[in-house]
């Protein structure tokens, strides 16, 4: 039984716990390695539990409003404020709750994995400080109801991520990747800050719901929209703004890369929140929807074609991550394109959005799993070069099984979760434009071919002499991969349960701009 105090204050606690633990982590290592492991593992376990408690409450009772510093946690608009939310407000609807579920499950599995995978390295106090700050940034981005605090949490996430990308210096390339990531993130943050200034100058507000209520879609609003979309599309790794992704994903420690996937999806959430909740039908939904669709198609095609010739397994997976982001953009873009057409929205628009959102959570699970398997392989053989691997299926059977699960899921093969979400995207997008659906299916075929090649290179064939003594990775690493693998299989076997319980409410909440505005400005549903 969860105490009511914890449920009521779960929005604040889920960002406070990792934030405090981040600053204690360097000191805990002075006591012992075990003390630090207990601290970061316990903090992440509590944080994930709090996020799941909040998500469960939102799915059960509707949008949660949490106001920092108010007499009542749900009092978003004080009586003497003139109708303006003046405090820091968290607004978590079903769309935000879906992102909390993704962040909670992924972060917990990654921290368990990292307790073994990073044990032999130095500087772990700083590593876990940055890791927990990343988690704080992600949870804050998907919970805040304020554009400026979205910017603040995005900056926390970006700075911590850049530090972790460069954590294993690796002779310089990791630092180069981190600098590229940091510079582009700074440019994106600058664009977002200008957009926020435009909103504040026009509407005297930073609260998303209030800005949405007052939105006039002037020329300046269009400029702000373009700045937000460009910055967040770059942050989520969409083509043609993807060029930081392969370097950062391939150079970061694998546990960090798995969390970078979730970080990219938090930016994707921000993009969807802006176009649906801030603008909605006020904008030219068909035009912006087609723009998102084009980004999605470019990401799918360019990502998979760049992945196929790669010899570095993590770089290959990074390009596939770009390709999979394209499916999410395609599905939600179709929903946005028909947002103003109720019959089309009911006929296939909602299904396309559900497919795109379902693919977000599926992608976080199977792509996180694949990056963790790549890290497990590197942990034992010390290379990501496919040309230097072979025969590891003889000695790393569990890692091979987890890789197979992730590879079949990303290729959209039943009965794994990637098949379920891709099928929804194929069917709904076909009703919108058959050519787009055909492109999506061809990309899946190429993805399957790519991972068959990778599987053969890593696991098949005789044991190579230099890997004769290779053993399976430690139990915590297997446990971290096992959590994600179980979710991949469960979501694939029971897709209707997941869609009906988690995804469909999120899609309808995202599309219903009026409900979001009313929930915040009235103090909660």
Topology of helices and strands:
Layout (H helix, E strand, L loop, with lengths): L3 H5 L1 H22 L1 H29 L2 E4 L21 E4 L1 H24 L6 H18 L5 H19 L7 H31 L4 H7 L4 H17 L9 H7 L2 H26 L5 H23 L5 H25 L4 H40 L15 H14 L6 H16 L1 H26 L15 H19 L1 H17 L1 H9 L4
Helix pairs in contact: 2-3, 2-5, 3-4, 3-5, 4-11, 4-14, 4-18, 4-19, 5-6, 5-11, 6-7, 6-11, 7-9, 7-10, 8-20, 9-11, 10-11, 10-13, 11-13, 11-14, 11-20, 12-13, 12-17, 13-14, 13-16, 13-17, 14-15, 14-16, 14-18, 14-19, 15-17, 15-18, 16-17, 16-18
Kindly summarize this structure in a few lines:
By secondary structure, this protein is mainly alpha-helical. It is built from 20 helices and two strands.
Characterise this structure:
This protein has 525 residues and is mainly alpha-helical. Helix content is 75%, strand content 2%. Strands 1-2 form a two-stranded antiparallel ribbon. The two termini are 24 Å apart.
Which structural traits does this protein have?
525 residues, mainly alpha, two-stranded antiparallel ribbon, 2% strand
Instruction: Enumerate how many helices there are, as a single number.
Output: 20
Helical content band: over 70%
Q: Say how many strands there are.
A: 2
**Class by SSE composition:** mainly alpha
Question: What fraction of residues sit in β-strands?
Answer: under 5%
Low-confidence parts lasting 5 or more residues at pLDDT below 50?
none
Strand order of the largest sheet: 1-2
Anisotropy-based shape: globular
- Average pLDDT figure: 93
Largest sheet: 2 strands, antiparallel
Computed over alpha carbons, the radius of gyration is 22 Å
Order of SSEs: HHHEEHHHHHHHHHHHHHHHHH
Amino-to-carboxy terminus distance: 24 Å
